[in-house]
Design brief:
Elements (H helix, E strand, L loop, with lengths): L39 E2 L12 H15 L1 H4 L8 H15 L8 E4 L1 H13 L5 E5 L4 H8 L4 E5 L1 E2 L2 E2 L1 H13 L4 E7 L12 H13 L3 E5 L15 H4 L5 E6 L11 E4 L5 H5 L9 H41 L4 E2 L7 E5 L6 H10 L2 E2 L1 E2 L13 E5 L5 H17 L2
Parallel strand pairs: 1-13, 3-4, 3-7, 7-8, 8-9
Antiparallel strand pairs: 2-10, 5-6, 9-10, 11-12, 12-15, 14-15
The protein binds pyridoxal-5'-phosphate.
Pyridoxal-5'-phosphate binds next to helix 4.
Length: 406
């Protein structure tokens, strides 16, 4: 039963709960609430459901219960399960090639939580936060809850344009202001797909030092590289304690385990941890995930790379065959997404309706821009969830819809 109330909560709500979150003028599906559920799910970045290691997770659960029993079932440490913190260190060494200490690691409820903790640490209402434009819609929504002035900086094939970034930082300084943080998705940027070059990473670090700000490096997909050479992480390159780096098990194990982490200079870990009032993040599942990953991480990541490489290649092939040169199609070296600049003259609203009729979902471009008022000429497709057959059929149908959406 719904509790019907006439109480006005206005005077009770916190300043943050009352923040006016600008709602972008987004295209809406004309088919409305009664539209049939999509068959071709190219919207959210959901991991491939067939890739989940069901049996191995059952075995890991059994092992945890036998070895740790009650330890796994009581409240956990505020910094997270020590075994998982150690695993993050080993994983960083193996995939990123640099050493960190356990004291640099704080375990969180997925990397979304880690990103929110970075805001708790640094962002007051009215502060400036710089993001890439476009950037991940989920983080934009997290940022908006903290009430900053969001400023977007554009990108090219090497990632964030550091010249434009410096001009922005300079202009802020001229007005007696500065950015509290610069948010960047370094590998296979979500949604735009490029990987930030080493040159740009070095420039970004020196700008953070020069303009006395922090960098928030989000690397949700780093292990899922299908082509090209890895570039060293900003956290690994940084010599001045200017970088916070977030990571997650969502993409290499399962989003449902809700486990991620933030790497930070040791001085900042206790400060971040004071915002964790959760009784220890998922002590039980942290152990299951850790036991599983200790045995299987490398081989599982290899399997995932093979699955997603094939999905990426299949979607790209169909898009190129269907759209030719009429659209700009990203070519990411990893991750889950393809970013498309639609052919000149495409009507975004009409496209959304035609896609819904064909039971295709995708995310319209404006969701990824800080102001939500640009990017109508782009869409983001995820190739991670759909099967290969769904990718083939759905992409062909989508190309037809794009050609018809004039
Ligand atoms: C770039 C990026 N960062 C962070 C996240 C958050 O993931 P999670 O909270 O599941 O770790 C996602 C999820 O799609 C993402 O794409």
């Amino acid at each position: 039963m719904d509790v019907v109330t006439t109480t006005s909560y206005d005077s009770l709500l916190s300043r943050r709960a009352k923040l006016e979150i600008p709602s972008p003028r987004l295209p809406r599906s004309a088919s409305g609430a009664n539209a049939p559920a999509p068959l071709y799910m190219f919207g959210g970045g959901f991991p491939d459901p067939g890739s989940f290691p069901y049996q191995e997770l059952v075995e890991a659960t059994e092992e945890v219960m036998q070895k740790e029993g009650a330890q796994a079932l009581i409240y956990g440490h505020q910094l997270g399960y020590q075994g998982l913190r150690e695993l993050v260190c080993e994983k960083t060494k193996y995939y990123e090639g640099f050493e960190i200490a356990v004291d640099n690691v704080l375990i969180t409820n997925g990397s979304s939580h880690a990103l929110a903790l970075a805001c708790d640490l640094l962002v007051d209402v009215g502060d400036v936060v710089i993001t890439e434009a476009p950037t991940f819609s989920g983080t934009l929504n997290t940022f908006r809850r903290y009430g900053p002035e969001l400023v977007g900086v554009s990108m090219d094939q090497e990632g964030i344009r550091t010249e434009e970034l410096e001009a922005t930082l300079k202009e802020l300084a001229r007005r007696g202001r500065r950015a509290k943080l610069i948010y960047t998705i370094v590998n296979f940027q979500n949604p735009a797909g490029m990987t930030q070059s080493l040159r740009r990473r070095m420039e970004l670090l020196s700008l953070a030092e020069k303009y006395d700000t922090m960098i928030l490096e989000d690397d949700a997909y780093g292990e899922l590289r299908y082509s090209g050479e890895p570039v060293k992480s900003l956290f690994g390159l940084d010599e001045n304690g200017r970088v916070l780096r977030t990571g997650t098990l969502s993409k290499i194990l399962a989003a449902g385990v809700r486990l991620g982490w933030i790497l930070a200079p040791t001085a900042l870990i206790p400060k971040l941890a004071q915002f964790k009032t959760d009784g220890g993040t998922n002590p039980y599942v942290s152990r299951v995930a850790t036991y599983y990953l200790r045995k299987h991480m490398h081989e599982h990541v290899e399997e995932l790379r093979a699955i997603y490489r094939q999905k990426r290649d299949t979607m790209l092939e169909r898009l190129r065959a269907g759209l030719g040169d009429s659209a700009e199609i990203s070519n990411p070296d990893g991750g889950f997404f393809i970013w498309i600049r639609l052919p000149e003259g495409t009507n975004p609203q009409k496209l959304l309706s035609l896609a819904a009729e064909r039971r295709i979902s995708y995310v319209p471009g404006p969701y990824f821009f800080p102001g939500g008022d640009t990017g109508f000429d782009h869409i983001r497709l995820a190739f991670s969830w759909a099967s290969l057959d769904e990718i083939r059929q759905g992409t062909d149908l989508l190309c037809d819809a794009i050609k018809a959406a004039r």
